[in-house]
Amino acid sequence: MNKIIKNDQVVIIAGKDNGKQGRVIRVLGNKVVVEGVNVVKRHQKPNLMRNIEGGVVVKEMPISISNVAILNPDTKKADRVGVKVVVVNNQVRRVRVFKSSGVEIPAIIMERN
Q1: Which end of the chain is more exposed for a tag (fewer CB within 10 A), N or C?
Q2: Is 0.85 surpassed by the pTM of this model?
Q3: pLDDT digits (tens, 9 = 90+) for 28-48
Q4: In terms of C-beta density within 10 A (0-12 exposed, 13-18 middle, 19 or more buried), how is residue 37 classed?
Q5: Domains of the chain in sequence order
Q6: Cα separation of 23 and 12, whole Å?
Q7: According to the model, what pLDDT value does residue 108 have?
Q8: Would you state the pLDDT for residue 107?
Q9: What does the radius of gyration of the chain's CA atoms come to, in whole angstroms?
């Protein structure tokens, strides 16, 4: 079970963007892409076959998962994530919990357009 998943609110705890907050866009193995964090400018060549215009493109790059911590909405601070086993309707489930309080982390499900 991954401790940080898509759509989690996270805080950057190390690096040039230390202290910034954002939402996880993608999880790529041991790296995550967070919106508004680790933004770089790339010079893009035009490609007529793919209908891509040239110019300077601003995009978010991946950051190591060890440099982010989940944001606890109760304390508004970074927190660690633990895993707890819960039995619901005779089914065993593993849920993510905040280490500081033991409160279950709600799974935010966003609808696609």
Answers
A1: C
A2: no
A3: 999 999 999 999 999 999 999
A4: buried
A5: 9-98 (2.30.30.30)
A6: 11
A7: 65
A8: 73
A9: 18
